[in-house]
Amino acid sequence: MPEKKQLKLTGRIWLETDDGPVLGSGRVELLERIQQSGSLRQAALQMKMSYKQAWDMIKHMNEQLGGPVIMAQRGGKGGGNTIITENGLKAVALFRSCQKLFHDFLKENQPEF
Fold first, then answer.
1. What is the crossing angle of helices 51-64 and 25-37, to 10°?
2. Which residues are bridge partners to 84 per DSSP?
3. Which of 8, 18, 37, 95 gets the most CB atoms within 10 Å of its CB?
4. Which of 74, 71, 94, 96 has its CA nearest to residue 84?
5. How far is CA 37 from CA 26, 51, 69, 84, 97, in A?
6. Within 13 Å of residue 56, how many CA atoms lie on the same side as its CB?
7. What predicted TM-score, i.e. pTM, was given to this entire model?
8. 50-74 residue pLDDT tens
């Protein structure tokens, strides 16, 4: 007889508008990596995605969240710099707060079989 496996309740969360998903773990990671590196290009490289894909994600968040989540300054002698806006910081904090609540829910509601 096969060994009975433990069932686990798992999942991921997305924050959405009526137009669909806006914030998930990947998009929030992108924002956090931009904050750490000061560069959209570096954040995209670290996540093994194209610059265009990263920029498209940022553009979508900007549109859905009512304003820019990053501010980019063009390069010059010392290179450019990208920072997270107050809107972007709020989005990250909201997602992380919801994610913690979700993980707490999962821990407290594991099925018994």
1. 110
2. 70
3. 95
4. 71
5. 16, 14, 15, 11, 23
6. 5
7. 0.87
8. 999 999 999 999 999 999 999 987 7
As a residue count, the chain comes to 113
pLDDT at site 76: 61
Are 84 and 35 in contact, with CB atoms under 8 Å apart? yes
**What distance in Å separates the CA atoms of residue 36 and residue 81, rounded to the nearest whole number?**
11
- Token pair recorded at residue 69: 């989540």
What's the burial of 17, exposed, middle or buried (CB within 10 Å: 0-12/13-18/19+)?
Answer: exposed
**Residues 30/47, Cβ–Cβ less than 8 Å:** yes
